[in-house]
Amino acid sequence: PCPSRGQPSRMFASNATSAMKGADMDRLWLKGYPAGVPHDIKPEEYTSVVELLEDSLKKYADQPISVCMDGWMKFGELDKLSQQLGVWLQSLQLEPDARVAIMLPTIPQFAVSMAGVLRAGYTCVNVNPLYTARELEHQIKDSGATTIIILENFAHTLAEVIARTPIKHVCMTSMGDLLGAAYGAWITFAVRHLAKMVPKFEIPLDGRNVTPFKKALSMGAGKPLRKPQVNHDSIAFLQYTGGTTGLSKGAVLTHRNIIAATLQAEAWFAPAYQGQANLSKLHSIAALPLYHIFALTLLLLALRQGSSLSLIPNPRDIPKFVEVLRKRPFHTLPAVNTLFNALLQNEKFRALDFSALAVSQAGGMAASEGTAKQWQKVTGKVMIEGWGMSETCAIGTNNPVTATQFSGTIGLPRPGIDIAIKDDDGNNVPQGQNGEICIKGPNVMRGYYNQPEETAKAFTADGFMRTGDIGVMDERGYTKIIDRKKDMILVSGFNVFPNELENVISLCPGVVECARSEEHTSELQSH
């Protein structure tokens, strides 16, 4: 550190600071950030998601990562099991950039599978277990997945289409596989024979192999896991969109994207946990399906923090869900508006102790003002709404966790993210005017898998991704979604958005929830 070297460094730092201040001046939302929330994050902190995972798995080895049906799993156990699964996957001699489909609900096997696939150096393809055969066939073919990890409950769907897909390796798990020997065996028996939740199926072999999940783990036990050759630009996940405008597309999420989204979530939620001496003591509720990008980010955040999750395989069973909530304090509860609403209708839920609850995070669909007001009345906590997409690694904008009331907006861009409201030609519209919400940041996908034309259409000339959502940004940087671009209804020459109608109706006494019919929307459009 001689003077001749020190001076240029200070000059560079000064110039960089000036440039940052200039950039921040254009990001008017930064003024609304809670104290301590950084303006940007540094994905370079990790070379890959694998490094993030392995760092946490070792650091928090003795801490619990999840509980499901009273069966606990520690970080150290997740480390061991995911390594064993990774070794088994590598033994299949898959191609270096192989895609591995994961068709699991919110059970412990999901985290083991996700971590195992990534640690082996492959790409996770998350699959909705409730897919129809047609939807499953499309996603497997489109992704080119040659291996699938699946719960036996859904194997009948796979059996219908596997002959027309590139799948060669099937890893089959049962509900109780990771819930302990005796209890797990009982759960599997109950699911198969009492609840009869495993329809009959027959997987045609014809060059394929079917390996029980527990056998795959045992085959990888005691063997070294080869270090994968992955970096920031490697594909970590193919996260498929809902396909509301046609066949679903695979959003290419790189290791850099996933790291960025995890660090953004950590930075944004930090003010809510002030006073919590040990973040590893935080407990969150994973009621949303882990294959969905919203819940997946929650899992990654828990892994980063060393905190734990209650896994809820069937959140539709509200009485059983509420019983889980009664068992231990919970600090974070992410949910869609429908789930918040269902909980509010349950008398036992309304009697719970909400003193530990720090974050009530709404996302996945529009949150209604009526539900938000009722939530605050019952729990004493503010519901904060966020917005995002599979293409943005979940939440791109969020209301501050320090909010004292529901804002009716989707909040502010998270650290490192830019939002612009643009017209059809990609030009920024004047502040306060409606336009398409466009987003740029380290969390935004690289593009759609093997669809260069769709990727080109998705981005503006200046690098922002078009979201298809119509919104307006106010002078504080808060954005309000008007509706989906394709859902706009023309009535006597005026633009009418279903979201506006639903929000007003939700405030009417006696209304529990609003929903729209696409058929009726089409009729209004035609008139």
Classification by helices and strands: alpha/beta
Coarse morphology: globular
- Helix percentage: 25-40%
The N- to C-terminal Cα distance equals 74 Å
Q: Mind describing the biggest β-sheet? A: 8 strands, mixed
Beta fraction: 15-25%
Low-confidence stretches are 1-23, 490-497, 518-527
DSSP strand count: 23
Features:
527 residues, alpha/beta, eight-stranded mixed sheet, five-stranded mixed sheet, 17 helices, 36% helix, 20% strand, globular, disordered C terminus
Walk me through the topology.
Layout: H1 3-26, H2 49-59, E1 64-68, E2 71-74, H3 75-91, E3 99-103, H4 108-120, E4 123-126, H5 133-143, E5 147-151, H6 155-161, E6 169-173, H7 181-194, E7 209-212, H8 213-220, E8 235-240, E9 250-254, H9 255-269, E10 283-286, H10 293-305, E11 308-311, H11 318-327, E12 332-335, H12 337-344, H13 347-350, E13 359-362, H14 369-379, E14 383-389, E15 394-398, E16 412-413, E17 418-422, E18 435-440, E19 447-448, H15 452-458, E20 465-473, E21 479-484, E22 489-491, E23 494-496, H16 498-506, H17 518-526
Parallel strand pairs: 1-11, 3-4, 3-5, 4-8, 5-6, 6-7, 10-11, 12-13, 13-14
Antiparallel strand pairs: 1-2, 8-9, 9-19, 14-15, 15-16, 17-18, 18-20, 20-21, 22-23
Short description:
The chain is an alpha/beta fold and 527 residues long. 36% of the residues lie in helices and 20% in strands. The strands form 5 sheets. Strands 7-6-5-3-4-8-9-19 form an 8-stranded mixed beta sheet, with helices on both faces.
Task: Give a structural overview.
The chain has helices at 3-26, 49-59, 75-91, 108-120, 133-143, 155-161, 181-194, 213-220, 255-269, 293-305, 318-327, 337-344, 347-350, 369-379, 452-458, 498-506, 518-526; strands at residues 64-68, 71-74, 99-103, 123-126, 147-151, 169-173, 209-212, 235-240, 250-254, 283-286, 308-311, 332-335, 359-362, 383-389, 394-398, 412-413, 418-422, 435-440, 447-448, 465-473, 479-484, 489-491, 494-496. It is of the alpha/beta class and 527 residues long. The strands form five sheets. An eight-stranded mixed beta sheet has the order 7-6-5-3-4-8-9-19, sandwiched between helices.
